[in-house]
Amino acid sequence: MKHKEVINYIVSWLVDYSAKSHTSGFVIGISGGIDSALTSTLCALTQKPVIALNMPIRQHKAEFDRSAEHIEWLKKNYANVTSDAVNLTHIFEKIESDFPVSIQDFLTMANTRARLRMLTLYAFAGHHKMLVAGTGNKIEDFGVGFFTKYGDGGVDISPIADLLKSQVYGLAKELNVVESILQAKPTDGLFADGRSDEDQMGATYDELEWAMLALEKRVNEKQFSEREKQVMEIYKSRNRANKHKMEAIPVCKIPKELL
């Protein structure tokens, strides 16, 4: 990959889209992970106003600290970046107190966190007439569907959604993203114990990237090792289960004769 050229292309795309939509800049949630670090840096390179939000909800300390470190790095290097920290813990706890206990399973409440952050991003974006920049990469958005519908999947634009995870790391290194983020295990930040994406999915991003590319190339599965077979099944299973996130919302089309 031609890192500098890809960076320039994405930055130009962001500038053009903002101009066409008559918006003033970008709002982005900073998670302490590589995807939001890269996306926020690309937005900062547009020289348009950027608001970086740290939105902890019972956040694992290491994740919060990485988010804060990256935000400070952004502001030090890009004068167009401002930030805010919005602690959403007490709002989340209010939701917990009002939701029926019967629906408060682990995943439901994790997704509720993501949707609460989406609401916050759009409050800032609406007030400042900005775009919410998404942080999903190609594997997450179009491979295994590893995002929350109307949570971190609720965005205006997706600058890095055509990049594989390995390519995200390559661009982040090119832009000198802070070392703590480059070295951290990827995590969605939705669990207080700091569990990694690999813990949740059972495969690394390198493995899932391999599976996605193997399917695109129609590699004969008879050549796979036992681990490769396991990874392929993980990829296919998640892809099937999460199609509803990756495809357009079904619309019931009424026959003309009934109208």
Q: What does this 3D model show about the protein?
A:
The protein is 53% helix and 6% strand. It has 259 residues and is α/β, with parallel strands linked by helices. The protein has a single domain, classed as Rossmann fold, CATH 3.40.50. A four-stranded parallel sheet has the order 3-2-1-4, with helices on both faces. Strand 1, helix 2 and strand 2 form a beta-alpha-beta unit. Helix 2 packs across helix 7 and helix 10 packs across helix 11. The chain is globular, with a radius of gyration of 19 Å.
Instruction: Please give the domain count.
Output: 1
- The level 1 CATH classification is Alpha Beta
Rg, alpha carbons: 19 Å
Structural classification:
alpha/beta
Please state the overall shape, judged from the principal axes of the Cα atoms. Answer: globular
Low-confidence blocks of residues:
none
Beta-strand residue percentage: 5-15%
Q: Could you name the CATH homologous superfamily?
A: HUPs
Instruction: Count every helix, treating DSSP H or I runs of 4 or more residues as helices.
Output: 12
Order of helices and strands: HEHEHEHHEHHHHHHH
The share of residues in helices is 40-55%
End-to-end distance, in Å? 52 Å
The CATH architecture term is 3-Layer(aba) Sandwich
- Strands, count: 4
Determine the CATH topology.
Rossmann fold
- Give average pLDDT, whole number: 95
Q: How is the biggest beta sheet arranged?
A: 4 strands, parallel
Strand order of the largest sheet: 3-2-1-4
For this entry, give a set of tags.
259 residues, Rossmann fold, 12 helices, globular
